[in-house]
Amino acid sequence: MSKKPKQHPTALHEKEGVSDSEITNTSAINSIKSKRQSQPTTDDLVNAILKGDITALSRAITLVESTNPQHLQKANAIIKQCLPHANKSVRIGITGVPGVGKSTFIEAFGTHLTHLGKKVAVLAVDPSSSLTKGSILGDKTRMEDLVKDKNAFIRPSASGTSLGGVARKTRESIILCEAAGFDTIIIETVGVGQSETAVHSMVDFFLLLQLAGAGDELQGIKRGIIEMADAIAINKADGDNLKKAKLAKVEFNRALHMYPAKDSGWQPKVMLCSALNEDGISEIWELIETYISEAKNNTFFEQKRNEQNKFWLLQTIDDRLKSDFYNASEIKKELSNQLALIESGKTTPFAAAEYLLKLND
Ligand code: GDP
């Protein structure tokens, strides 16, 4: 007589997606158990995060990044519980054009910090990643040593087309990393778009990586980004490039003095470094430490974080209102009608906007 599988495991295996052959041996039971264990509760995740469990931290960040409303609900509950344990880190933003050496720098800088006994988390803001199908931290091999370092946590950038959405996910991930005991958070961003503004508004210190170029050192660099920088590090100051880098340092120093003084009273500094040779890395960290201690002494540190929180409150409302508006089914339908009417010259942009906004009232 052929043995029928017992009712209990069969029901489970259907539910948990375990194959028929698997169910015939004990490993199937273990497999079911482990799959079950892979659905921890909010409390399980929070407790594990607070103990510094990286797997739990990754899972919570995945929930933050999810578009599933149930996941978001869970993410919000986790963040709420983690919040009292957050806020205790130094947050550093690092930007620079592709090729300037950001990942090489973060590898050297992060490793320097873990050797000093710090716990370093690296996150990224890269709003273009879903368009380009790549992310700036997607290729983890870019930071080979740091990835293997038990005191470092590297998270590829959240995907999403809206900068606001990506930035929100990063901000929430910062909270989770801090709750997990990371005392230094590095946020990387590409130096080509608006993402610097978003990153600047979530970090304590903003570092711009630059290259020494021939001729006009400021060519191609957005004024706004220089204005945001607390320090400029001229990377690849090695080999034949060292002389040029030293000249660039003089140029940047001169340029920085032309900008208005910062609210913090801090005069931005220009440094030289070679991420590849790990030169100048410890000096940059010392500079950041000096900045942080000065900003804490004159209360600017707290003040800036408060300002940032207010900014993010307003930003979150803006994002939410926009996404609610554009996702309303009636708006979706009518928007294309109104666009067609504009194209055929039958309405004006203002009349169409008025009409659509009233529809949503
Ligand atoms: P990213 O695109 O800004 O992240 O830049 P990468 O870190 O990927 O670096 C781009 C290239 O520049 C790589 O080939 C690196 O090896 C090289 N590179 C980075 N830092 C230095 C440096 O300090 N000196 C030299 N000579 N090359 C560097």
From TrEMBL:
<dbReference type="GO" id="GO:0016301">
    <property type="term" value="F:kinase activity"/>
</dbReference>
<keyword id="KW-0418">Kinase</keyword>
<comment type="similarity">
    <text>Belongs to the SIMIBI class G3E GTPase family. ArgK/MeaB subfamily.</text>
</comment>
<feature type="region of interest" description="Disordered">
    <location>
        <begin position="1"/>
        <end position="24"/>
    </location>
</feature>
<dbReference type="GO" id="GO:0005737">
    <property type="term" value="C:cytoplasm"/>
</dbReference>
<dbReference type="InterPro" id="IPR005129">
    <property type="entry name" value="GTPase_ArgK"/>
</dbReference>
<dbReference type="InterPro" id="IPR027417">
    <property type="entry name" value="P-loop_NTPase"/>
</dbReference>
<protein>
    <submittedName>
        <fullName>ATPase/protein kinase</fullName>
    </submittedName>
</protein>
<keyword id="KW-0808">Transferase</keyword>
<dbReference type="GO" id="GO:0003924">
    <property type="term" value="F:GTPase activity"/>
</dbReference>
<dbReference type="GO" id="GO:0005525">
    <property type="term" value="F:GTP binding"/>
</dbReference>
<dbReference type="Pfam" id="PF03308">
    <property type="entry name" value="MeaB"/>
</dbReference>
